Amino acid sequence: MSASALPPSDSDPRKDTLIEYPSIFPIKVMGASHDGFVHAMVQVAQQFDPSFDAASVELRPSKGGNYLGVTLSITATSRAQLDDLYRALTSHPMVKIVL
């Protein structure tokens, strides 16, 4: 079998996602509404995107005010970066849900 007749390699990481890198990627995080939650989420985002602008954070309190939705729009540079960021957010003790 010649090289041109071989099936395409599955090792191309671009085939694993429809996201074009780099791109702005919004991540929604929910947690209890209390002092320090937003700051903690900004710190996590900055670990994975040093250019993250805290001024871009969007906040949505729940109807009862017990929870806060935080949208972090990071510059996604790879699938690995996004996976690592999701793992860091979901394992954070202040976080209830990450979308």
Distance between the termini: 45 Å
DSSP strand count:
4
Structural class determined from secondary elements: alpha+beta
Tally of individual helices: 2
Rg for CA atoms: 17 Å
Could you state the order of secondary-structure elements as H and E?
Answer: EHEEHE
| Percentage beta strand | 25-35%
Integer average pLDDT: 89
Shape: globular
Helix content: 10-25%
Contiguous uncertain segments of 5+ residues: none
Largest sheet: 4 strands, antiparallel
Sheet with most strands: strand arrangement: 2-3-1-4
Secondary structure elements and pairings:
Elements: E1 23-32, H1 37-48, E2 58-61, E3 67-76, H2 79-90, E4 95-98
Helix pairs in contact: 1-2
Describe the structure.
- The protein has 99 residues and is of the alpha+beta class.
- It has a domain at 35-99.
- The chain contains two helices and four strands; from the N terminus they run E-H-E-E-H-E.
- Strands 2-3-1-4 form a four-stranded antiparallel β-sheet, covered by helices on one side.
- A hairpin with a 5-residue loop joins strand 2 (58-61) and strand 3.
- Helix 1 packs antiparallel against helix 2.
- The radius of gyration is 17 Å and the shape is globular.
- The termini are far apart.
